[in-house]
Amino acid sequence: MKRMKAAGPALDGAASIGKPANSAWPSASLVGDVPALLADRAAASVDLVVMAAPQAVRASGRANEIDPDQYVEWFLPLSAQLLRVLSPRGSFVLNIKEAVIDGERHTYVFELILALRKQGWLWCEEYGWHKGRGTQTSSAQRLPDAWERCLHFTKQRAFKMNQDAVQVPMGTWAQSRLKSLSKSDEVRMNSAVGNAFGKRVGAWVGRSHAYPTNVLHPAQTDEWSCAGMGLTPDVARWFIKLFSDVGDVVLDPFAMSSVTTDAAEALGRCGIGLAPERKRVRPAGSRRLDGQAPVAVAAAGSVVVVGRGSFSAKSGA
Fold first, then answer.
1. What is the mean pLDDT of the chain?
2. Residue 261 belongs to what H/E stretch?
3. Which has more confidence, 241 or 258?
4. pLDDT in the model for residue 29
5. Going by C-beta distance under 8 Å and a sequence separation of 6 or more, which residues neighbour residue 75?
6. What is the distance between the alpha carbons of residues 43 and 58, in angstroms, rounded to a whole number?
7. Neighbouring residues of 207: CB distance < 8 A, sequence distance ≥ 6
8. Alpha-carbon distance 78 to 47, whole Å?
9. Which residue stretches of the chain are H helix?
10. More confident residue, 280 or 258
11. Among 54, 90, 85, 69, residue whose Cα is nearest residue 228
């Protein structure tokens, strides 16, 4: 990652959002060396980290791309700071997918998981989301890629999770299936193959919603196409609702668009976006979710408001 200086006080007139004084994380986007910026923040001051990892590409020379053989080495300084600033019951959601190198999927994602566990992270779960239209490929040995992986890490086994916030409607099948129940529907029927799974159909009576699976099917929108990378707005909102409460701090430490910060603010959270170098923080769509005009990031180290507040960093951090 290109190292840059963070500079600048909070913007005049910026209103901070209700968080404890030791967190000092009102909504904003800041450009600079991300591990250095995080090192200046209070410990346990972030409730949720949502990050779309940059793609690993060998010998491309373009910004924000890392050699796959050096990916773990590049990532660990960042994850060490994320581990420090994350609250004890907080979560880290990492959207990452292995690149195809020399005709095969590279193993850097699996190597990173093992390295993060050694660093102190708990790998709790793996989520997937369907991209709808698959990414086209010219390879005769590979079909279009239509899914993304999201890894869920925490600091401890007891973490914040609001499952009721992401329930989905039961569907029209329940109206006919539950209208007339048999005697067997009122008792638990164990799996015929002898595993631990079973069901009691009568338990669904009177319910309008159910818990989703760990595979998401977000709507494909032009809003996400404009962002050009990372999570879709639907996916960002889903994880924010699942792993945070109103008023919590949500951090995107590699914010190449405002998708996560916009989603956080729309849900009543405090959204923070950190960009690793001179980049344009692109709005999720033609206009911001709050109706504001699109914003551009100036020179590296400048402070740019993309939310309701500002981000303050010590000079020379």
1. 74
2. helix 259-266
3. 241
4. 54
5. 53, 112, 115
6. 35
7. 170, 174
8. 16
9. 34-39, 71-85, 108-119, 173-177, 222-227, 233-243, 259-266
10. 258
11. 54
**Which structure tokens are listed for 142?**
């590979």
Using CB atoms within 10 Å of the CB of residue 73, give its burial: 0 to 12 exposed, 13 to 18 middle, 19+ buried: exposed
- The Cα–Cα gap between 308 and 47 comes to 18
Summarize the confidence of residues 283-290 as an average pLDDT: 37
What is the distance, to the nearest Å, from the Cα of residue 162 to the centroid of all Cα atoms in its chain? 16
pLDDT band at 144 (very low <50, low <70, confident <90, very high): confident
> What is the C-alpha separation between 17 and 247, in angstroms, rounded?
8
- In the beta sheet, which residues pair with residue 154? 91, 122
Query: How does DSSP classify residue 66?
Result: B
Q: Which residues contact 297 (CB under 8 A, 6 or more apart)?
A: 29, 31, 275, 278, 279, 280, 281, 304
**Predicted pLDDT at 16:** 28
Q: How far apart are CA 179 and CA 202, in angstroms?
A: 10
pLDDT at 143 over 90: no
Single-letter amino acid, residue 77: P
Amino acid at 301: G
| AA letter at 165 | A
The token pair at 191 is: 């799996």
Q: Can you give the length of the chain in residues?
A: 317
Could you tell me the two tokens for 245?
């409460």
28-136+143-167+211-304: what CATH class?
alpha beta
pLDDT for residue 39: 87
What gap in Å lies between CA 183 and CA 279, rounded to an integer? Answer: 64
Give me the half-sphere count of Cα atoms (radius 13 Å) on the Cβ side of residue 233: 21
Read off φ and ψ for residue 128, nearest 5 degrees.
-130, 150
* C-alpha to C-alpha distance for 153 and 299, rounded to whole angstroms: 33
**Beta-strand pair 215-216/249-252:** unpaired
Q: Would you kindly state where each structural domain of the chain is located, as residue ranges? A: 28-136+143-167+211-304, 169-210
pTM of the model: 0.75
